[in-house]
Amino acid sequence: MTLDHVETRGSLIVESLRGIGRMARESGLSVSALRFYDGAGVLVPAHVDPRTGYRSYAPEQVLVARLVAVLRRVGMPIAGIRELLARRHDPAGVDELLAAHLHQLEQGLVDARRALSSVRSLIEQEERPMSPTTVTVAGPELAAALRAVRFAVGSDPELPVLGGVLLDVAADAVTLVATDRYRLAIASVPLIALDGPAVGAVVPAPFSDRFPETGTVVITVDGATIGVRAGAEELTGHLIPDAFPDYRRLVPENDRSVPVDASLRAALAAAPTRTLRRDADGVEYEVAVLSVGPDGIAVGADGEGVAVNREFLLEALDAGGEGQLLLSLDGPISPLVVRSPRSVSLLMPVRS
Question: Residue 240: which residues within 8 A CB-CB, separation 6 or more?
């Protein structure tokens, strides 16, 4: 008699246990996957024969196995599946976990688009000969633009390209960009002169910190090197060779604007917050929640609204200077945008 039928042991009746083969057919998980999830503690059989090691599953485990199959198809990690199964009878808890995973998938898609957007430009660089590009800008304007983006430079050693500032040279301006994946800052400097083709160059942040702040600054990008000259002062350095993310795709073209004044910064600095821990690196940070009400922007620690890293937002407001607009308070996964005449900053909201 197999375990797919009724088996009697004294007064104990084990009803309709599934063998691992039948469980695989009914759940959509392979036999090897079932063994793996047993070892991972995600889907433990109802019974394991101590002599043969043969696994058997209870009828109610079929739906659990189908749930595991769906969650794995959408890329949920084992730890997330384990937590969701433990909370599956709590609708609010399930919604929270699914929303968090959906946010991760959306962010992954954004990252993939950034990476793929660089493919065409890399191919074009390979196909055309490299020639130097020299731009001339005003030192004070360059220094102001660097201050407006410097706070967003990354420090992750596994992503060295984010440890630099992008100089995106076009026909009418040099655009400076920095991002650490959680925020992005953009500022432009008008050109005095341009000699050579448009070019994008990623300058290591410590080197950009040495740029002259007065007079007229001449910057030359030649292959993998950069030269900076202002009067008798000259600097030479090496560029970061990796492709920088395509920042243009991230800046919303149309967004709702809410005026920002000094009172918002003061309210943000004094508002109650909650402390969260970042999954990627374990860093703790304070979270504030922003919402738009009849009296403008309200700041708190809880409630409906957009949850942000308070320190990041304060840095963005300081970098933007006067005349700012706070934009895109449109939901928990839309970037929060700070615009000013000097710069544009984007901050990814956090899961609150």
Answer: 160, 161, 163, 164, 202, 203, 204
